[in-house]
Amino acid sequence: MPITKRPCANCPFRSDGGAVQLHPERLDDIVNGLLADDHKTFICHKTLDLERMTCAGAVGVMAKLGHLPLVARLGLEFGVISRDDIAASAALVIEPQDLKIQPRDMRVRPNKRSRAGKLQPTVGSDEAQQTESDPW
Asked: To pair with 82 at 20 to 30 A between CA atoms, which of 15, 70, 114, 121?
């Protein structure tokens, strides 16, 4: 999935006052969902009717948290985006401390299957996650 290069003028993650207003806890939910499953992405609202693209604002917040989602890591690997793109996006978005982020051990990750083949949540799973020190 392509990634926008910069947060749009009214990206909900922007910190400069131009952000579209969401329900007060919606940003928390989005970020907690991305932290819980790095295979998830957040679609840029400007691309919902076009070719859907990952939101650069969400990627910027996740970079500040040291937890790039898989789509961003793949984007770096294949040259879709650059470290400079991510750093520029991170400079335009809200600070993680302004969000209510669930502690790592409280996040639920659906990554195990029961004998019946249904997904079972795993609490605090660190599988397939990059290190805190280098999200790239």
From this structure: 15
Q: Can you tell me the distance from the alpha carbon of 90 to that of 15, in angstroms, rounded to the nearest whole number?
A: 10
pTM assigned to the model: 0.74
Tokens of 65: 């948290």
Q: Quick one: angle between helices 26-36 and 56-64, nearest 10?
A: 70
Determine whether 134 is exposed, middle or buried from the number of CB atoms within 10 Å of its CB (0-12, 13-18, 19+). exposed
Paired tokens of 86:
């991510």
Q: Is 75 helix (H, G, I), strand (E, B) or coil?
A: helix
* Cβ contact 2:54 at 8 Å: yes
The dihedral sign for the CA sequence 35, 38, 40, 41: positive
Say how far apart CA 73 and CA 78 lie, in whole Å: 9
125 or 18: which carries more pLDDT confidence? Answer: 18
Could you give the angle at the alpha carbon of 134 between the alpha carbons of 104 and 89, nearest 5°?
A: 90
Beta bridge partners of 43: 54
